Amino acid sequence: MKKFLSFLILFYSLNPLIAQKTIIPQVKVVNEHNANPMILQELSIDILVMGQTAVTTMEMSFYNPNSRVMEGEFEFPLSDGQQVSRFALDINGKLREGAVVDKALGRKAFEDIVRRGVDPGLLEKTEGNNFRARVYPMPRRGSRRILIAFEQELSQKDGQDFFFLPIATAMKLKKFRIHTEVVSRFVKANIQNSLQLDFTQSRNSYISEVEKTNYTLDKNIALTFPKIDKPQLISASKGDKSYLYGNIALEKLPLRAKEAPKNIGILWDISSSSEKRDFAKEYALLDAYFKEVKNVKVTLTTFHIRTSKPIFFEVKDGNWQELKHCLENQTYDGATDGNAMIFPHGADEYFLFSDGIFNFGKEEFKINNLVKNLHTPVNIITSQLVANMDKLQYLAGTTGGSFINLNTQEPTKALKSLRYQSFQLLGYEVKQGKITHLYPEKGTLIEENFTFSGELLSQDATLLISFGYPNKTIIQKEVIFSKTSEANIHEFSLLRHIWAEKKISQLQREGSNTKKIDAVGREYGIVTEGNSLIVLETVEDYLRYQITPPEELQKEYYHHVNKEKQDKEKAKKEHLDYIVRLSEAQSKWWNTDFPIVGTKPEKSKKEEQDGMQIVREEHAVAAGVQARAVASQSNALVIRADRSSVSSNNDAQLADVVVTGHRASKKERRQANKITQANMSGVITYSEEENTSNTNPSKIILSNYNPDTPYLKVMEYADPAKAIETYYKLKKEYGQTPSFYVDVADYFFKKGDTEQAVLVVSNLAELGLEDAQLLRILGYKLSNYKANQESIEVFRKVLSIREEEPQAYRDLGLALAQDKQYQQAVETLYKVVSHPWDSRFREVQLIVMNEINNIVNTQKGIRTSFIDKRLLKKEPVDIRVVLTWDTDNSDMDLWVTDPEEEKCFYGHRRTFLGGTMSQDITQGYGPEEFMLKKAPKGNYKIEVNYYGNRSQKQLFPVSLRITFFTHYGTSQEKKQETTVRLSNKREVIEVGSFEF
């Protein structure tokens, strides 16, 4: 066996003391009936170490044991400093590399293609360095291969460089393989390992490989490298581009003690996610700290979506038991608002205990604004596996505080960080040659190893690097780089990637605009929070969404791109012309007087009343949408908006508006008003005077929706004075169930405790990072509770992650209108109207244009110069009902039964009284809209029907939002809203009614 290898490989048995996130992806199963989780059957791990950077590539084969095709959703929770660099998925038996795209575009492409039943894959980054891979299809009782690669810098452990790959759970694998290559580490070392690894030398690398079958992997994988005192300097060139990379192992850093503080401020995060913190480590650190400083005054403030009043303590001779008792008895609940952090005046230092994931508030939390107003060091302590490390490090570094990650730092080292000034980079000086774009930049906190990267513009260059404390240089290092042609293409690609990652980290530390960060990620193939890696099956798919494909498809792709350049202005004009034709068709309906002479109401059939439904026209989009006539076609007035010339949507559509009967003359209408009930064969007579909005009283009656859940029963029977205490007890059992927070929040709201309701429902933001479905529910509930500014911020977040869907703009626009920000509301809503959305959102533009006109006609001073004048009109109605829901690929139906017992629904869209139903939405989130211009006296029953769900993902119950309006578009307008939850297909529920 060769004795020249520079590292020692250890396979640690699973140890609960090592607090790390498992690197093996987890398959999340939520409320899926009779579904088994995906099974990892094969795992191949490749580890490449070059300098201080390790690249880990994992290729996995997952088996779907279920009897139906599923969409797999895999979560990769990476640790701080790990960055995804590759994602690939098997297409026709061969791995296809992912392409970096804007997150919204990637999600749109993925979901569109899933509906066609072909093979896309999508990798997205969420907050806290978590990655989510969505793969479709996972074939029934079949397998898919997934590849993911990530890069990281080696950490330090016991004076040595350290690589750690946490497995964290025993896995039985049919096949297991591990391949390791280490470049340019020539220190002699003995080899000790449990897998009997043999290493061979190839050029300047040492390589080992082991394969096992039917193997149980139950150990974390760790590599330990004796530290190299001499700087490691690497460069690589391709064409006229050269990158440099350096690693400097600093000798034992001189410690500069801080002056003992007299007053400190502790900010303690008590949001729900903080329950996952390692309190034992945090208390141990505080205990050691107070024993050293002995005597200090402490001001404690706690925060979640609100801040507490400060509590004052005095630590004497290191005794902090009173403060500790207070911390141990905190209750953790709600989301986190960064603006709720109050830094008490008079403190010499601050200690912030938080994960840095701020997901709630009346306005966006801007860390740069906070930093500008802070003139005291902020020490950041985090012990959570999921945390916004970049933001926390930036806050600590810019204020002169210390950043402590208790998952990776030993207690003694953490204590030193608090007691001594932080060592940092003071700057670079190019003494000879030319080097540019060096990262990290001045002010970065330094530990035992310092790594940097830049662009090398001359053949040779000399660089002087300074380290120390603010205004005090302690160490200077001079290094020399030379361009080399020896590096292979893989080494060049790695150095290019490292440079881009360091640039992104610098931008993140500075709190730069996310679009700027995302642009760098797309240019260099790095997944950021605004980017995704997507795998598509065909060149046509890449063309359709204008996504640059992997290298093997690019020749064909660019050939097609050059042939198929489209005139975007022409497409935009054609789209608006189509919306105008829809609007004109609606105006013709509005200008038609109902009921029409010679027609009868179409009574609901008994079969339908018993729950049977007519066959739905599933292929309406491709064939052209046609409303059902409610009387003989010989008397039907058909208004047609032809869309065949519109090129912006995939399928041409034909929108028909059918108005029963002919338009009656004034004489005929006067005669019709005199016809008796008998002469009309049972049809009730109505006078014109009864149809006027000003004289016809009305009211909205919402049904009492009370979910039959065990926790609500406990809440209802509990002592009202102990309601909050009861909630906290129930939370321990139901805390991972979204509906629990919705229902309990409604309980408090009905009791008049809106403040507690908002706190409870804010937990939805903590349950799933960037989960659009949960955030929509949260936004709707906040709107119900009149927490307008908070709902606006939630809908802004939904829009940032779902900008490919018109509902995201509509929700935000309506929230702005509710907050009386009418101009911004109209501008946001018009983006729905002016954009050609996917065909599954058909005619959403017309519904939203109704809402724009309502704002314009009822509010003064709205600027409308950007709106197509043909769309602006005033068409008030007595009744309007709108249904939306929160789950994609779901089919919900709105049913309205009028006083004639005639039901208006997707199969009967026009009624005798003139009620009209919008197009049936079978694959999106709605909206579906019912309108009646003139409402005769009587009761109008409103029902919703859960028709079906095509989602392949694990299912939540579907939350439906129903909004009721009377005298819509007039000064007498009234509005009420309700939210219900349906879980069973074919479930029908009455949600309310109108009385006229």
Itemize the secondary structure elements and their pairings:
Layout: E1 8-13, E2 26-27, E3 39-50, E4 53-63, E5 70-77, E6 83-91, E7 94-97, E8 99-102, H1 103-114, E9 121-126, E10 130-138, E11 143-153, E12 155-157, E13 160-165, E14 171-183, E15 199-202, E16 205-217, E17 219-225, E18 232-238, E19 241-249, E20 263-269, H2 279-293, E21 296-303, E22 311-315, H3 321-328, E23 349-353, H4 367-373, E24 378-382, H5 389-399, E25 403-405, H6 411-419, E26 424-432, E27 435-439, E28 449-456, E29 460-469, E30 472-482, H7 489-509, H8 514-524, E31 531-535, H9 539-544, H10 551-563, H11 568-590, H12 606-609, H13 620-623, E32 637-642, E33 654-659, H14 666-674, E34 699-702, H15 710-717, H16 723-734, H17 738-750, H18 754-761, H19 764-767, H20 772-784, H21 788-801, H22 806-818, H23 822-834, H24 844-858, E35 877-885, E36 890-897, E37 903-904, E38 916-917, E39 928-932, E40 939-949, E41 958-968, E42 974-982, E43 988-995
Helix pairs in contact: 2-6, 7-8, 15-17, 17-18, 20-21, 21-22, 22-23, 22-24, 23-24
What does this structure look like?
The protein is of the alpha+beta class and 996 residues long. The protein contains 24 helices and 43 strands. Strands 7-6-11-4-3-14-16-15 form an 8-stranded mixed beta sheet. Strands 2-5-10-9-31-8 form a 6-stranded antiparallel beta sheet. A 6-stranded mixed beta sheet has the order 22-21-20-23-24-25. A hairpin with a 2-residue loop joins strand 15 and strand 16. Helix 22 packs antiparallel against helix 23. The longest helix has 23 residues. The radius of gyration is 32 Å and the shape is globular. The N terminus is likely disordered.
